[in-house]
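Notes from the 1:1 (GR / supervisor)

We went over the backlog. Supervisor wanted to see one worked example end to end before approving the batch request, so GR pasted a single chain during the call. The sequence is below; no edits were made to it. Supervisor asked that the structure be written out right there so they could see what the output format looks like.
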Amino acid sequence: MGPAEKSLSIFFALTHRAWLNRSMKVALLVESLTGNTWKAAELIAGNLQQEGWTITGLNPVKKPDHLALQAADLIVVGTWVHGAFIVGQSPWGIGNINALPAITGKRAATFCTFALNPGKTLGAMEKSVNRLGADVIGGMALHRAKIEAHSEEFAARLMSALAVA
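Structure output shown during the call:
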């Protein structure tokens, strides 16, 4: 390998490393009633920030920050589970999620907080966010008694999923 080829090889290696370590930008949109889902979003954001990710916004679903959404590489949408213990579980505020602005071409992830059983909440959320034009890369149900541990696990899953994307 000659000097020019060696320089080019080093350039590509450094460029690839810089790309892998670049700061992902994340916007979080949250529906919360008692504060559990908001707390989960703050914990998720904190875990991502510890790994060098940038949080462009943390806002209620009803009041999205359009600039934060535009700047984000990933949009995380969270809500809480509403419904009876065995049947009827659904994401609270699904109408508000459906009314979000189009996020075509963005990657997204969903999470819900629950007390007893999340049912098919994540599936319903994924459909809604997909209809907004996003590519949903995953989701997770977070038990309200395990908010800290589940939030950390969800953040780790996001980092892992996007490390190979």
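Supervisor's comment: The chain has one domain: 23-163.
Batch request approved.
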